[in-house]
Every structure is written in structure tokens, then in C-alpha cells.
Amino acid sequence: MNVVVCVKQIPDPAAPAALDPTTHNLDRTGKLILDDSDAYGVEMGLQLASGEGDEVILVSMAPGGETSGLRTALAMGAARAILVSDPALAGSDALGTAKVLAAAIKRAEPDLVLTATESTDGYTGTIPAQIAELLDLPSITFAKKIAIDGSTVKVERQTEAGYDEVESPLPAVVSVTAGVVEPRYPSFKGIMAAKSKQVDVLSVADIGVPEDQVGSVGAGQEITEVSKVEDRGGGEIVVDEGDGAERILAFLKELKVL
Amino acid sequence: MALDNIWVLAEFAESGPTTLTQELLTEARAIGTNVAAVSWGPDTATHAAALGDYGATKVYDVGDVGETLPGAPVAGAIAALIEGGDRPDALLIPASYDGRDVAGRLSVKLDRPVLTNVVGLSENGGLSSQHTLFGGTIAATAHFTGEGPHIFVVRAKSFTAEAGGGGAADVVSAPAPAPGASGAAKVTGRHVEERSGPKLDEASVIVSGGRGLGSAENYQMIEELANLLHGAAGASRAIVDAGWVPYARQVGQTGKTVKPDLYIACGISGATQHLVGMKGSKNIVAVNKDQDAPIFSVADLGIVGDVHKVLPALIEAIKNSK
User: Fold this and answer.
1) CA nearest B195 in A: which residue?
2) pLDDT of A18 above 60
3) Is the ipTM of this complex over 0.85?
4) Which of A190, A218, B51, B182 would be a feasible disulfide site paired with A186, CB 3.0-4.6 Å?
């Protein structure tokens, strides 16, 4: 079974994020890392594709031939990666990104495509459904449990009230919530092996997506204004010296919650 | 100049249109001349009066999609309406599980982009949308540069729902074309998780717990405090990921956006992921042992202390004061 896992390489969320002041695109010039949210899909893929001849193939789109995040996922155990990297992709919106990912995914001939529910930085959350529609595949979003039964994928899908059991024939696209599995830490052996694993770096022309549908040229939306949100501020911060509970109680009474 | 036609994807809970659906209809009424709802399910027609009350003059009824996940058939039905010449200037879609599926698939069918995580809309010839980025530290305004229909996915609590007193919406049948392979995902069972007290996104008081609680067992203190304050119990992503509490309790970017009168964060450091979902609360109390925790930057009252001491004492004090 071939499992494709879509992964995003993002600026470290622990470092302050920035928008380019003129293009309003997210600044991706610094070092990129594997999006935390994608580690769950990688782990899930590795668990589902653990049989003889099974493979986990990573698909990613990033500027500058960036592979540091991919190496993390390869070190976890993925077999190989397809990276689409092209200056023409700068400023792509979610739909343009989905077109690129879908074209790259097709090359891997997957039985199952896993994605995160949304990325940590852009968090649009539409890409899983967009990829599925582009590939004419069924999709199940917000999976909290996944099992494969023959040629069927069985999922527990989050709902407002609880969860639904959902089934779909393969191939299918499934987006996983954080916490679906506990991602493994790459072993030393895995990190060493990842260095020589195959990463195919492709251009937009290679995957056959028209250039006018991607990048800022193809993006049908733009940010026109950016401003800093005022801090709430003005709060009272006190160190608990045994009176913490009383302070809160007094505040609750002031608010007439009690 | 108002927009001519705005469609709202309407979803229903047991009691009628969801709060988010009501919010979107209210906003659509404010910015558009004609508001229509689009919905699916076996009994859409029974909600025509409620949809009308919030401003829809028409409801396109996709009908019963059976056990098929709604994303593919509902997107197909909307695309078919648009191909048939019934064209909205803008579509407002709830940021819900099914709403995002519909938006993603529709965007491909129409070859139109989507603006997601919308928290405000303004009208100046066309529509501009407001978004918050990086945990709510940056506000951005965006708009579409190409032709419509323009698809906006809107977060809960961005607008205040207000009935307008309109008459029942006309029900127009808008069946889904056969979705083919993309519609092959079927629901085989539905599970409702037990919940006591008010809903997280409707509670006026929310008590949330995070990693600082130390163990899943200690979450019981959060529930007890929430109960005493007639509120709901919430959680940070960290303890949902750790499997301590179900995802339905999660407050934050990937979870629920909440704006209660009072939010009490216990043992939550305040990652941007969490702050974006709760910093709109009217009053915020935080208890955390790390005085540099980002949660204190949004707190009206911050207690630098151990939740294992402060919470039991608070619970005791509230019981005594009653």
C-alpha cells in the first residue's frame, strides 16, 4: 500500500512570525521546520503502511528546495519525498497550493492520502477537501482514529456532538486531527538513514500545472492591510501567597458571577 | 451600495439553525439586498420559518443526502445552481466540520479561491474580510481580486445573531447531481458524547485546564469549578492531544472560538494556538506557576501560583460562600 502524507515546512512557530511588508506574504526566508500538526499524519501513515512493500511517500511544497522538515519526517521512517519548489509558487493561495499538491500526489499513485486538518501557520483548513476534489476522490476530514480493512478505510470523524463512524473505499483523502496517534521521535539510525533517502525536487513545469494558476499571479485574493492588534493589557498579576483563591473569589463577586 | 445576492450555508442543531448560521444570516442581511440560505437534510423545509426570521427570503434545499458525507453532494448542488445561472455575489460558509468540506470542494468546482478564518466583513464596492493571524497579534484585511462568486469561511462569534422578523423563506428544491467517486464516504454510525451543563461556545463562564494540571485525573477539578459557576469546562490543545479530554472541549485555533463573560485558564501557558480562541473573552483569570507565561499578557487577574493549591482552595471558598 502506498500512503502519501502531505507535509508542510513552516517557519518555527516558536520564533516570531512576520509578513513581508510589501507583498504581505508570510516571510519564509528563515529556516523551516516540519509543521508539528503533520507529525501525526506521518506517524499514522507509518503505522498503516507497515507491511511488506508498503511505502510512505511525503509530498510537500516549499521555497528554495527546502528539505529540513522533510528530513525530520524521513527520519521518522518515510521512504521518500516529492518536493515541489519553484520561485513561481511564491504567494500561492490555498487553491493554487492544492493544485500543486494534487499534481504531485498523482505521481505517487497513492492508495491513501493523509493530511493534517490545517497547517499551524496559514490554517486555512480547506486544502484536504480541495485536493480530494481535484483528484476526484472521496475525503474524510477530522479523523481521530483510522483503520484499513481490505480496500476500505474506516474512520472515526469528529463532529459537533461527538464522532461519526465513516467508511470510504480506497483511494481516499483523510485529514487527521492532532492527537490521532503519538508521533515517534526520530532515532539516531533514522536520522542517519534520512540523509540518503530520495527527495525528488520538481518545478511547476515538471508537474504540469499552468504557471498562471499558481503563485501571486494565480492567487485570486490579496491582503490589503495589516496592523498590530492592541494588547488587552492592564491586568493585575499577583504572586500567590496563600491568598490566590481569595483574590479570584473577590474578582468573581465583583463580576457578579457569584 | 449593498451586494445584490448573498447565500449562506445553513446548518441545523436539534433546536433549529445553529448559532453560527444565525450569525451569518444576520450579517448577510446587513450587507446584502437578497439573502438566501442553502441547506441539506431530510427536513430543511421545517426550518424555513426560522431561516426567514433571520433574513433568508429563499432556502435552496439540497434534500436528504442520506449517509453520504455532505461535502461532495452539497458542493455539487451549489455548483449546479450557479451553472444554472443562479449566482450569488458572495457565499458565507460556517467554519464548521462540514462547512469547510463544502467550501474546499466548491472552490475547486468553481475554480475560485476561498478566504477562511474570517472574523469580520466590510462592504466598500466589494467585500473585504478581516482575519487575525499569529494567535491574534496581527489583524489583516483581505479581498478577492478576481470574479465571484466569492467564498468566505467565517469563524463563530464574528457577528452577533439578531432575528429580523422576516416571513418564512421560500423553499426551492436544489437537488445534488450524482457526486460520483468523490461522494463515496458514508457515515455508518453516529455517537453523541455525553455532556452536562451549557455548551462550550454558548456558556457565559468557561473554566479551562492545560498541561499544568499534571494529570488527566486533575481535570476533575476543572469540571467541578465549571459546575459550581454554572459554566462549561474547556481545555488546551496540549491535553486534548495527550488524550486527557475529548476534542470537543478544545478551545483555540483548531478548536472552538469562545467569548464568554468570564474565562478562567488553569495551568495553561497560553500558546498562540490557544489565545486566538479565547482572548475575546470579556474577563480573563489565569492561574499558572510560570510568571512569564504568555497567558498573563491577556489576563485581567493573573495568579502566579500552583493550580494544585489554588484550585482546591477556590472550590472550597465558593462552596462556603453559597
Assistant:
1) A161
2) yes
3) yes
4) A190
